[in-house]
């Protein structure tokens, strides 16, 4: 197993390169930018539909109002996602543009939205109150048109990059104000992108008689069907955990390509549920509540197992520190504290527990009769509660949750016990050494990972491109009064832990420090408001891209290692000291 782990470590640069692919990253960040649409629309949908489940009849005007809010938010998500994807891809491409040449992200965003409409939406005449009006078929404006949205964004940014890099723009005299001149410079690339998409639309409709978005769905439907089989679900879940195990945020790599179908399936489940049928799709957006039950690796039960059944002081401490965050799907304190990442003892349970979970979910949906997930809940909702809500408060879902807890406990327990024995032996040896030195009263500290013969996590290793964080000699200090700190992680969960620790530390030490948490990919519009940006371990692979932006803006960039990061989240005053030391460099 150690040989396998070492082999995976050698391949980490390749996996990181895949994770930094600008198109994959743009899809992920563009989709993340639209999450407020998904979550807000779901709230109103829950208000409109769930009371009837428990026999409460709401006034019809209130139901109609909630449905209208849902339709005018979730119903246009495809259009919005085209814009956010284009905006994020533009930011990525601007890092590679020649000096003095910049793509206008506002213009690419609008052009992508127009292009998406051309690819996905049908316009036709209709009679209304005796008059002929022009009508849009809204079917593909929402989740059904997400793949068209991504393609429209790629075409748009590609055309803008081609035109701007070759000066194929309308140039005005230098006396013309910059804002006006920029509008004219964008005319050619804007027109080029929408014309290309319009021609694609004409060709597809002439050949197939349907919009481009429908062709994509038909072509990809065999792949979607395969993804919803037991082997398909296992492959998706295995690689989500596998990438995380080697220190790369797995959901960021695996999920962008399947998010459109997951959302579409969940919307279809909802329609079936409201019609009184049995929602049968298992590959849904909130299947992550099952596959990542307590976070990637299905770690919901692990902290409790550490507290109740392990003898190692290290593991018991990790369990106590991580039990609350893991309940809300923030399992980095466990992943880096145990550690689980690149730990040979944990490879099998970490990668397979989620696979068993999704197979169990499909069995419950297909055979036992549990509803497929129909309502979207925030990713940080405690998994048992989220599963109960997503299935429409079905009582059988509680039995399903109990089964998940048992299955995951059975999978993890033997590997945790083996790891616990090794750590306990290390701690006992440490105690014997202290007694031999005549210091039997000394506190027994938990052995470091290297002493435990566990491979150092990839996120604790120092990539060549990321300088080590060193402490200055002596008691070097630099005033951090007035400092503004932005902490970034994959979903603003782990980053909130450190941001809150910095706030608490600032209050305790009397420093005037403002700190905020955010998700990587949604930071570009606000990063210039901060003096320091801290990358959490799961987004540390984006260090080089971020460094190009922070150097340009004169911002200090810090990227602490995994265990160091978790330690800072638990030590507010230590977090302030850490900031002071690094600002002194």
Low-confidence stretches: 440-476
Q: How many helix segments? A: 25
Oligomer: single chain
- Terminal CA distance reads 40 Å
Mean pLDDT: 85
Tally of extended strands? 6
Helix content: 55-70%
**Biggest beta-sheet profile:** 4 strands, parallel
Anisotropy-based shape: globular
Proportion in β-strands: 5-15%
What value does the Rg take, in angstroms?
Answer: 26 Å
Q: Helices and strands: which structural class?
A: mainly alpha
What strand line-up does the widest sheet have? 4-3-5-6
What would your notes on this structure say?
With about 575 residues, this protein is mainly α. Helix 16 packs antiparallel against helix 17 and helix 22 crosses helix 24. Strand 1 and strand 2 form a beta hairpin. Helices cover about 60% and strands about 5% of the residues. The protein is globular, with a radius of gyration of 26 Å.
């Amino acid at each position: 197993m150690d040989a396998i782990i070492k082999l995976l470590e050698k391949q980490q640069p390749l996996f990181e390169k895949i994770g930094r692919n600008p198109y994959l990253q743009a899809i992920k960040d563009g989709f993340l930018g639209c999450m407020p649409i998904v979550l807000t629309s779901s709230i109103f949908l829950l208000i409109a539909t769930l009371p009837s489940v428990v026999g409460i009849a709401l006034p019809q005007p209130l139901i109609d109002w909630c449905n209208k809010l849902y339709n005018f938010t979730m119903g246009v998500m495809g259009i919005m996602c085209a814009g956010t994807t284009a905006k994020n891809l533009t930011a990525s491409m601007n890092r590679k543009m020649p000096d003095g040449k910049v793509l206008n992200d506002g213009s690419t965003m609008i052009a992508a939205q127009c292009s998406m409409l051309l690819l996905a939406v049908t316009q036709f005449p209709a009679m209304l109150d005796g008059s002929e009006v022009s009508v849009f078929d809204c079917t593909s404006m929402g989740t059904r048109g997400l793949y068209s949205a991504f393609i429209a964004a790629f075409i748009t940014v590609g055309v803008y990059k081609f035109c701007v890099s070759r000066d194929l723009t309308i140039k005005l005299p230098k006396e013309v104000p910059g804002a006006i001149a920029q509008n004219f410079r964008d005319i050619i690339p804007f027109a080029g992108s929408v014309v290309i998409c319009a021609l694609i639309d004409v060709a597809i409709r002439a050949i197939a008689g349907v919009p481009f978005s429908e062709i994509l769905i038909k072509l990809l439907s065999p792949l979607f069907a395969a993804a919803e089989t037991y082997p398909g679900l296992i492959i998706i879940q295995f690689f989500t955990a596998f990438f995380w195990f080697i220190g790369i945020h797995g959901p960021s790599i695996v999920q962008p390509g399947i998010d459109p179908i997951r959302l579409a399936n969940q919307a279809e489940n909802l329609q079936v549920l409201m019609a009184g049928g049995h929602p049968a799709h298992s590959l849904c957006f909130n299947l992550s509540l099952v596959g990542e039950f307590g976070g990637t690796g299905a770690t919901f039960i692990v902290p409790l197992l550490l507290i109740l059944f392990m003898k190692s002081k290290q593991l018991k401490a990790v369990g106590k520190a991580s039990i609350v965050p893991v309940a809300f799907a923030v399992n980095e304190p466990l992943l880096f504290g145990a550690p689980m990442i690149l730990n040979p003892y944990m490879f099998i349970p970490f990668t397979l527990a989620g696979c068993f979970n999704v197979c169990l979910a499909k069995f419950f949906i297909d055979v036992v009769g549990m509803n497929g997930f129909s309502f979207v809940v925030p990713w940080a909702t405690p998994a048992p509660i989220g599963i109960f809500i997503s299935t429409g408060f079905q009582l059988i879902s509680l039995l399903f949750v109990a089964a998940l807890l048992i299955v995951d406990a059975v999978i993890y327990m033997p590997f945790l016990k083996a790891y616990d024995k090794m750590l306990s032996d290390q701690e006992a040896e440490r105690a014997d050494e202290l007694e031999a030195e005549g210091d039997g009263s000394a506190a027994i500290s938990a052995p470091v990972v290297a002493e435990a013969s566990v491979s150092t996590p990839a996120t604790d290793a120092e990539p060549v491109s990321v300088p080590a964080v060193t402490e200055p000699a002596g008691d070097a200090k630099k005033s951090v009064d007035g400092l503004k700190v932005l902490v970034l992680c994959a979903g603003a969960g782990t980053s909130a832990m450190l941001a809150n620790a910095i706030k608490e530390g600032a209050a305790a030490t009397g420093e005037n420090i403002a700190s905020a948490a955010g998700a990587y990919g949604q930071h570009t519009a606000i990063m210039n408001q901060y003096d320091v940006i801290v990358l959490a371990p799961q987004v540390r692979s984006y260090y080089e891209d971020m460094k190009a932006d922070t150097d340009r803006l004169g911002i200090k960039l810090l990227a602490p290692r995994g265990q160091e990061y978790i330690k800072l989240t638990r030590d507010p005053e230590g977090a302030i000291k850490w900031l002071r030391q690094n600002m002194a460099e």
